[in-house]
Design brief:
single chain, elongated, ph1033 like fold, alpha+beta, Aspartate Aminotransferase, domain 1
Amino acid sequence: MSIEENIFKRKVLNTEKLIPFGFTKEGKTYVYSKKFMNDSFRADVIINQEGNVEGKVYDLDLNEEYTNFRIEDAIGEFVNTVKEEYIKILKDIAENCFEEEYFIYEQSNRITKLIKEKYNVSPEFLWEKFPNHGVFRNSRSTKWFGAILNIDKSKIISNAKGEIELLNVKLDDQVEKYINKEGIYPAYHFSKKNWISIILDDTLSDKEIMKLIEISYENSNIKGEWLIPANPKYYDIMNAFNNTDIITWKQSNKIMKGDIIYLYIAEPYSAIMFKCEAIETGIPYEFKNKNLCIKQAMKIRLIKRYNQNEWTFKKLKEYGIKAIRSPRSITNKLSKALNKEE
């Protein structure tokens, strides 16, 4: 891969920025020239309408093209300095005239855009050693539901060669259902029992891929479980669900739609009395008095009522709950016990 290809491979040209930057239009191409190293060298950069970049460096003292810096095993301080200065020019053009594109191939970027639109999630690039590997993380559970990896095709298909991008998605018990479909392969670098790989070369349509991503997202969409205190001195929570299954309640910032809420009622009850689901969150709400200040609310739907003696504070202590002063996530041990009784 050339220096130019490496710098511009994940970028999309914005032609409107070329002329203001200093390019001149010559026919169907744009040309930019800049002298460097005390005006002893000149870089000529040509960009066509498709955004392909070609560059040449000229030694002005000798009046000829200088190519030593392109030799892979070239050594020497002078050669490296010329290369570094030329790269600075290219990076300046990339920063000012191009826009970032996450991946190399068209379908990879289309899928990334669709994921952003549907789940409001952008890829994270976590590894310095593998800068082209991007993962998609469920914002609720922080679990991965997808990863686009840049690899050689031989790692997926024997005797095949060439750079590809593939998407890994987590299908769990549905892996066998899809693994023999054209364009789908045993997962590369992930558990083959739970994940599959899809080569992003348009063998599968965007629509088909998004259906598989939806399965993977749901597999990663682990609901939060919260223990929330309620004081009957300030609100008649014990009778709040008498005529409706849905009430509005103060929301902690970390609670998300679909999370499970266990309402712990303070003295004289001192026990979990209600299990609810957050069905709407982030509702603007203004309420303030000397005991309570609410700036954000949520709607919660009643799922189950408990008897006063079922989940007392004394019993909760057995599951690692030492205090309930504000909304808190429940322990794994308590979660298993509560759900076991369903």
